């Protein structure tokens, strides 16, 4: 396989991307009754993941670019051996960063209200 990457099949306007987005939405919609019957611990975990999903969507590309060609590139070399593992690591790190950022903002707001 060559090293040149052609993204004509996976672009945001491609039929495959639209199909996968619709499929993922339908999967989540189908699993909703299962999640409703789940334990309180599972619901809390889903709420936490849900609360950072927009931030991960907005900021994951920064971390992807840093790991591919930036100063952190040498730290996360999993993409060279398995891109799926690297994607999971990047999204998890972005989620943690967004969660910590939200926590810091909440603390600052709390301190501002105390004054």
Q: Please tell me what the overall shape is.
A: extended
The helix/strand order is: HHHH
What is the helix fraction of residues, given as a range?
over 70%
Structural class: mainly alpha
Mean pLDDT: 78
| Count of DSSP-assigned helices | 4
Please state the oligomeric state of the protein chains shown. Answer: single chain
Low-pLDDT stretches are none
Largest sheet: none
Q: Tally the beta strands.
A: 0
Radius of gyration: 18 Å
Instruction: Tell me what portion of residues adopts beta-strand conformation.
Output: under 5%
What's the N-to-C terminus distance?
A: 62 Å
Task: Give a nutshell description of this structure.
The chain has 115 residues and is mostly helical. It has helices at 15-36, 40-69, 78-81, 83-114.
Describe the protein's architecture and organization:
With 115 residues, the chain is an all-alpha fold. Helices cover 77% and strands 0% of the residues. It is built from four helices and no strands. The relative contact order is 0.07.
